[in-house]
From TrEMBL:
Annotated protein name in UniProt: CBS domain-containing protein
Domain CBS: 8-69, 78-137
Keywords recorded for this protein, A-Z: CBS domain, Repeat
Listed InterPro entries: CBS_dom, CBS_dom_sf, CBS_domain-containing
PANTHER family per record: CBS DOMAIN-CONTAINING PROTEIN CBSX2, CHLOROPLASTIC, CBS DOMAIN-CONTAINING PROTEIN DDB_G0289609
Protein source organism: Pseudobacteriovorax antillogorgiicola
One family name in Pfam for this protein: CBS
Amino acid sequence: MLTSKEIMTKNITYINPDLDVEKAGEYLIQKGLSSVPVVVDQGPRLKLVGFLSEADLLNFCSNQVYFDQPNMTVKDLMRNHPYCVGEDVEIFELARIFMDTKYRLLPVLDAQGYLVGVVRRRVVLDKILKLIKAEDSHLLNRVQKKDLHQLVNHRFIVG
């Protein structure tokens, strides 16, 4: 089964928690991003400390203009405990997470808790569409087929 490690983007775009919020907003717009991990650089490793989205920025910027709030840094606005996944999360579990949370991007952490990649909702959709179309036979061979009769019967017995 495909896992987050196999489909994640390893070239991670991220921002620093000390960045000015307005500059962070300009950065997201310039790069065409809807959200971005906030990290502290620890040498060759990246420690995830938060997450910033367009919605977070839109809320803050609207209030800043309307209520004349002082400018802040990313660490003042970011979500401190973002939803993360490990490297071994299967594609259908990723799909479920994306459907349940409405997130567009999930940070992927290694066993030590360092950021090693991100999984985009669009990539998960693309891989599942390829499974449906069977365009990518090596993907199709890795999906464990379920017996539909067992699933249906199980549903009626349990439900």
